[in-house]
Amino acid sequence: MNAAQRNRHAALLKSAGFEDSPALTVQSTDGEIPHGRELSFAWLSGTVMTGLTSVLLMGAALYVSFQGQASFSTAYEALQVPRSKTEALGPTDLSAKTSRLRPVTATRSDLEVIEASIRETVDGRDMIRNQPFVRIRATLATAPTSLSEGVPDYDPVAILNATQPIEATEASLDINTDVYGAEVEGEVAVKLAAMPTTFVPPRAISDQSAAEYARGVVEATFFSENDPPTLAYAALAPSVRDLGLDPAAGTLGGVAENVTVVPKTTQAADAELGRSERILTIRERTPLNEVMRRNGFTDAMIAAIDTTLQNVFPSTDLPAGARLRILFGPSRTSNTLIPYRLSIYLHDGGADVDVHRATVALTDKGQYVLGLAPAEIEFPEEDTEEVNVANLPSVYRSIWETGRKHELDDATIERIIGMFAYDVDMTKKIAAGDSIELLKSAPDAEGRSELLYVALTLGSTTRQLYRFATAEGVIDFYDPDGETGKRFINRRPLEGGGTLRSRFGYRIHPIFKTRRLHTGVDLAARTGTPIYAAGDGVIEYYKWQSGYGNKIEVKHVNGYETAYGHLSRFVDGLGVGSKVRQGQVIGYVGSTGQSTGPHLHFEIKINGNLVDPLSVKLPKDNVLPQQYEAQFQQTMAQINDLMTREPEPVAVAQNTTTP
Fold this sequence. Notes:
This protein is 18% helix and 27% strand. By secondary structure, it is α+β, with helices and mostly antiparallel strands. The strands form six sheets. Strands 19, 22, 23, 24, 25, 26, 27, 28, 29 and 30 form a ten-stranded antiparallel beta sheet that branches. Strands 3-14-7-10-11-12-13 form a seven-stranded antiparallel beta sheet, covered by helices on one side. Strands 4, 5, 6, 15, 16, 17 and 18 form a seven-stranded antiparallel beta sheet that branches.
């Protein structure tokens, strides 16, 4: 820049109010306010430190106030604000962040008492008396709540222990299902005696009357009124005409029952994934606390809700016809759903409507407070629950949830799981609509009852097991073919069952990247997890083998063999020729050989041929002796009769709905 340019630039700055001044200088003012163009490091550092301290203090205050939580907003559905009628959601609205309709399933949870006249022998005399039984029919739980907290991990060895035959005690042998053909009042003693040879029963009808009756039936069946007596074909089987229906008049029709009609589209609200709403109908007058306890409310929650409701809903019982709407959402502290909102509706018989009485909702602080009524809906005929398909529980956990809901003791639940574990993959997710049926004896003076029958329906397959006691005092459960559900080989022989990582069949090898046959299944587990013998047998191989690493081979009866690969170590004291029993620890999970991580490679061979361990049909371990076939068939018929009987007028707990 030349002199003329500099002068022009200075003139422009001066005309704009600026002037060319010396640079800032650092002056030590000993804490005094700097003047002019002086700059004080003390003042600058103080200003910066004040700002940083303020930010840290505000952040700490926010963190402490929210107790380190990751989310702080109250669920919109929990503390509902009034919505316009046009925005009211139907019973199918799951309030999920999705544009796709989440399914709604009809649910059932009937716990009923039935009575039957039972025949038994007492001191040499035949007695007939009324005996109560408890029948449970329920859909399997589709969502885990606090009821299934503390459930033990799936363990095949525990299942083996739970499926052992029932110890024959006086109480267990006293269970009787010998249903008498007629109902009696009180107790009736029956005495059988030989009929005298001189006794001739009187004729109910004369021979002439019998002949006329036979002639009339034959003529009406085989001869027409105007035609000669030539033999004609007769429709001996009943037809639809016998029901008063004429196919020529048009197509046959009917009324669909137990069907939940779901709209094709629905309005979606903004809420977190995993929430679901359960709609219950109270069939008989029932304590509110009992209903809440069977639907996943803890004792602490029930106490808090009782306190909140005491002024607006002081009654401790729910009358017949009352409705409950329970909104569930994910817990912040466990992998379960907890009740976010509970709404109570009482039926007004005169107006034939359900009137809202009270709503309690969960706040951010974990307290239940009074809330506004949720959006109006038209209550369905059947109890329903919205299903989170992506979050359905396993068969194992669902049976635990359903059993505890119906107050089954843990030992009974473990036995039920054990009876089906050999045929059913307990780690597989259930489907909405899967169900279970049980029959138990009525509780005795000490509250104990015996399981008599279990039926588990998964998809389109129903598996039934009946309790039966032999003359030797062996009590076990058998399917209609007289076989127990036990298999002599376990499909997942390690503690906890492992996690399925690779199935049987051709695959791309994870190390060599070539297509090869995977000769077994890979069950992932932590290093050191115990491995059990899948069945009784003799060890034939017990050392290192190429890609398998540490490997064990066990030979069983009838041409069956099992193999276990990639073990971290063997069990001391075992070797080739050692006899092992089902459930005995033979090694520990590892990653030896050609392995990408700790897991058990498990194989099954039948007559030297490799098969899929998870799908191959395995023989049963125990079969009922043929000498008991007729008696077992009679027991099945009697139990089936009890399962079809009408319940007593007052049901024990027909007021809850299983998720």
